[in-house]
User: Fold these one by one.
Assistant:
Number 1:
Amino acid sequence: MKLEGTYTFKAPQDVVYKLLLDPAALRACMPGCERMEETAPDVYEATMKVGVASVKGTFTGKVQLKDKRPPAAFTMAVEGSGTVGFMKGEGVVELVAQGGQTEVKWSGDAQVGGLIAGVGQRMIGGVSKMMIGQFFKMMEDQLGKGGAR
Amino acid sequence: MKPAQFEYFDPGTLDEALKLLRDHGDDAKVLAGGQSLVPLMNFRLARPKVIVDVNKIPGLDYVRDVDGMIHIGALTRQRTVETSSVIKGKCPLLTEATYWVGHLAIRTRGTVGGTIAHADPAAEYPCVLSALGGQVVVKGPAGERVLTADDFFVTFLTTALQPTEMVTEVRFPTVPPEAGWAFVEFSRRHGDFAIVGVAAMVQLDKQRKCTDARIALCGVGGTPFKARSAEAILKGTEVTDKVIQAAAEKVGGEVEPEGDLHGSAEYRKHLAKVLTGRTLRKALEKAGKVG
Amino acid sequence: MTTGTATKQKRQLRTISMTINGVEYEGACEARKLLVDFIREDLGLTGTHVGCEHGICGACTIFLNGQTVRSCLMFAVQADGQNLVTVEGLAKEGKLHPLQEAFWEHHGLQCGFCTPGMLIGALDFLSTNSDPTEDEIRVGISGNLCRCTGYHNIVKAIKAAAPVIKQRGTIF
């Protein structure tokens, strides 16, 4: 499925770019992230407990940051499998400065399979977008906590 | 598949149930009708460690007409709503919506509180509650609180309910006898989850001018979509076919549904427009016809 | 039989009893055992079938205290002390129920997998509408999926049985 959206950070572009690639911030903001370890440059192994309400599943997999073009864009590739299914996705994140703010445009493709994709078909698109939105909001909260500088 | 293991409690009073929720917090899940929860458990998509079966709690199964609102106890079965003469007389929009809720066997067990607390974006009762501007009564360790439908429904399957709280009552505003109302839903087979559904109530004065319009849609987002702009288009005007068309197009333009196997985003937007028009026309046919 | 490893929760069995088709049954099971599995496995009443396990197909439909429920969406412990009717309870003293007769007459079944749930579901529907039109029947049985017949003869059978059942004054 195609997933895309925008999120505006109230912070300058280079600060936002640094933040989005900061492993500590990623670990704190990736939904349900219980573990994230760098296994190779820009490659992280992660365990994430993802879900909505009582529907939860644990995914183990890989997060990779590549095609870095600071401070304008980068690509994030995620893949994981677990109790309720598997997922694989890759998205391009682009940053555009707007005065003192930064508009982040993200666009990607995700494949979801297994139980959650079948039974959860009606909601998977909406829930995925919502989680990505939550991720960016939590990232913005990180700035307030003195995350990336 | 079969459910994962869980600890099972069937408290005999509301206080006992609330104590169990307090003791177990996030680990516990309330089991009422089970028509939404047990499927999730059968597939192991949900694995609550503790189940608090509230079916034995007395005094939560009632339908009362109170000052312009129908108060329905959380454990009232949908099948009871279906055949309730009080609801048919005072809130017929809810009676009509019940026709679309699953199937007879589902409605035997499914409860009013349960479908509201589960908050499935395609569900009919949250849609009607949102359209009419109803309330949800919730009880927890801090006591009782009353939330509006707008505040209660947060997103997909998510409400303002805390893990230590339980829905105890759902309140639907009554439909004035001279108002028109309709619930229209589209799905591939009768009883399937709605692809898109519309609930509407319209009130006209003696000059056939619209004095009140309440519209909401299900299946177009994470929560019921309250069509405020469309309501505004109707209010204060003489509702002609042109006005209905304008309201329907407004809804079609405003909703931002996701696409999936059952229908693309464009298709759902189209459905939202067409069904809003149909629902409003049906509602208007009834408006002003008393008795 | 020894149960699993030390990490598994100890299996707690609850003793339950229920009246099914007029007969009292007793058994013991975990809280998580579904009612449909209990009546099939523990009580040997295999007429009720397991289909989708999420309430859509209707194969598991039975009567609980006079109204139909999806037995795949109830835990057996929830039926403790209750009154059930399954497909085995429709025929009385070797004589088929009028609805079963009609299914036979009108060839309303092929493989028979949906049939128990279909019979029970149709009877509950007829209790709400004793004189249905064909369209009303089609909506009324929409909670029971059939992969074989295309529903045509099922609808015919129900239409034919409706007046007979109405005359009897009871769906049982």
Note: Chain B has a mean pLDDT of 96.
Number 2:
Amino acid sequence: MPLSNTPANAAGWSDPAPAPAANALAPTPPLWLLAELTYRCPLHCAFCYNPVDYTRVEQELDTAQWRRVLDEGRALGAVQLGFSGGEPLVRDDLEALVAHARGLGYYINLITSGVGLTDARLGALREAGLDHIQLSFQDSTREMNDFLSSTRTFDLKNKVARLIKAHGYPMVMNCVLHRYNLPHIGAIIEMALEMGAEYLELANTQYYGWAWENRLALMPTEAQLREAEAVVERYRAKIGNRCKLLFVVPDYYENRPKRCMNGWGTTFLGIAPDGAAMPCHAARMLPGLTLPNVRESSLHDIWHHSDAFRRFRGTDWMPEPCRSCDEWEKDLGGCRCQAFLLTGDPGRTDPVCDKSPDHGRVREVVMQAARREVKEAPLVFRSVAESRRLVEEAAGDERG
Amino acid sequence: MSQDASNPMTNETSSETSHVALPELPRLNRLYRLQWEEVQKAWVLLYPEGMVKLNDSAAAILQRCDGTRTADALVDDLQAAYGVTGIAPEVHAFVQHACERGWLV
């Protein structure tokens, strides 16, 4: 009777047990299904990963269409379900979707800013079968939280955190890190402990979407990062299992890339508000990649047969220097969106890798940011007006 | 919503603590849900944004950790159910491991 347990390569599993690179013909199940119910959001975070042209997406899936997505995802083997956005609480069918998902056997995560999470809704969601709530904060101080989200939400979030615990939910507190708040990391951890969060996700900014627009302003210094890592380590030693601290490593200061979504088309299936199916959160921006839509295809066809999900699955697509690298199955060439943003070609090796001929571009962004004072790089806050401006600018670039 | 909030596949480091006091009557931590997954043909432990795939033995032990049995009673129960003997060291080691991981409290 062998008793060793086998860590699966599922969502969130942090042990070094990478899944084998999936064969393009026989993919593993999409264990993590992310339902981005809407792009509407009361916050205006300068590091949001939603596409900068989100205002072009108008028609959201309706309740019946989302139910079908949940049915088909579960049949494919999805087990972790995230309701996200935008702010998923702006959908008034959230409770109905949670109840449907629970009936199917999903473990249901609500990923929220907390705006709109009242005592009554928390109770209704609990009754519907919601398992867990991830609540975002932008900082440990009211001033910085409210500045970075361009809203007055700090006090509200504190109140919501207490309500979440009062209703007995497990809670993950999430805070995106960058040069503005990295010096506060100790206070952010103290805040999570005080609130009784079971997990604290300290996620260094990844530079896509709005964060890419703001990269020079948000990029931390190496000294800030190392100091923050040391603080996290000290707290881990002190607090043990009371609250698990997850520290998402910042790419730009590494010399090897991360796997893209644990491997393109191996684990993650995201559905955008309009039904576009995405192999990663940011895949919408990749040129030449036509995203299949759940209005036209079944999730089974999308996962197994669509060009978008097969394009970078496995190792067949890989260029040099990946092809002749002995670590190619470890990181699978890294992030496709990062390759595109830094080189213009999503099919190249992630420039974070110091074996990449494009690695200099990463160093360039880091050096540019290091030379710059924060005040010289004003933040672009996510808003409908800024989104339309950026769409216009991009159209201008194409024309000119 | 915040960046990466819904990206559970990023590399991360997490703390694993070692010695914790063993409960007399182990039961599943309320953070976890134990469930059969037909597509994976396996029992899994689900928790916020994560999953642990269990082998049959680990699942058989965890299913019996309902706060009414001591570790010794678990051994008796499993030996009777599966018609085996001499599994006490393995069961105790797994219970210890599961407590360290926070699965059992």
Note: Residues 224 and 306 of chain A are 43 Å apart (CA to CA).
